[in-house]
Write a structure and sequence with these properties.
single chain, 9-stranded mixed beta sheet, Spore Coat Polysaccharide Biosynthesis Protein SpsA, Chain A, alpha/beta, 292 residues, 42% helix, 9 helices, 11 strands
Length: 292
């Protein structure tokens, strides 16, 4: 079955996203089903969303399980053959869905696809040869950023042998790179539509009230995820050698900021060093920001 509004579900994973989620939802056609997976037990948020929007259902994960695990819940609950993953700090343009659906109908072989971010300084894709980019035509890429990703469920489950779409060992960062690599390793097609636009506000998904805690979490998980990704795809010793210089510099900076009494900066580099050590010892991505 081809992609259409009736055969498409939007999945959005949220956490303390009340300040921005309305902009995201209101940019989506009201005829399209939306599943929000809230990474908490916030009944107030769930009631607010479901009472305000007839096309939205909100699932409470009961705990902060991360982006990949949250997306897996939404994908599995979606009854459609196609799922559009969005971050809550993304908005669509008026014609984004029309162009995305048309491209999906024309490219029956696609596994993953995305509009293009309007911020040219931060492209939402990676490509080996930029000469292959034609700003008028769809082009194939190596990977997509996870803040906007259209998934062909039947094709991706077929090539991944029905395993979970996202590796839930990743809590934060690189889960989308890992997914794209697994798709490409199985010769799956990943496309970007340069004439189809989205706007990503960037790092606005969680309220700024929790910015310090989120920053500490980012630093821990970025290092952990880089080690785990490298170990998974290139081996343990490659991951050790690749991450060791960053561990040393993080340790030195931690000591430096302790000495000059910059408590927050010292915590950042402490978390970077700890992220590496935990990954080195094979521990899970257990760190969570302290959010009430």
């Amino acid at each position: 079955m081809s992609i259409s509004r009736q055969n498409l579900t939007v999945v959005i994973v949220t956490l303390k996203s009340q300040h921005i989620i309305d902009k995201c939802i209101q940019s989506i056609d009201r005829n399209i089903s939306i599943i929000i997976v809230e990474n908490s037990d916030d009944e107030v948020f769930k009631n607010y969303i479901e009472n305000k929007y007839n096309n939205v259902s909100c699932i409470l994960s009961k705990g902060n399980i991360g982006m990949g695990a949250g997306n897996n819940i939404g994908i599995n609950l979606a009854k459609s053959d196609f799922v559009l993953l969005l971050n809550p700090d993304v908005v669509l343009f008026d014609d984004t869905l029309d162009k995305l659906i048309k491209a999906g109908q024309d490219l029956a072989n696609f596994v993953l696809m995305s509009p293009i971010s309007v911020n040219d300084n931060y492209p939402n894709y990676k490509i080996k040869n930029k000469k292959n980019i034609n700003k008028l035509n769809i082009f194939e890429v190596e990977s997509l950023d996870g803040f906007c990703m259209l998934i062909n469920k039947k094709k991706i489950k077929l090539i991944l042998n029905d395993v979970k779409i996202f590796d839930e060992n990743f809590f934060m960062y690189l889960e989308n790179d890992d997914l794209c690599k697994r798709v490409k390793d199985m010769k799956g097609k990943i496309y970007v539509l340069p004439y189809c636009k989205i706007k990503h506000f960037g790092a606005k998904a969680v309220s700024e009230h929790y910015s310090d805690e989120i920053e500490l979490s980012r630093n821990w998980h970025w290092i952990w995820s880089k080690f785990y990704f490298s170990k998974k795809h290139k081996g343990y010793y490659h991951a050790v050698l690749q991450g060791f210089p960053k561990f040393i510099t993080s340790t030195i900076k931690f000591i430096f900021y302790i000495l000059i009494l910059n408590k927050f900066k010292s915590k950042i580099y402490y978390n970077r060093a700890l992220g590496y050590l935990n990954a080195l010892m094979g521990k899970s991505s257990w760190y969570r920001p302290k959010i009430d």
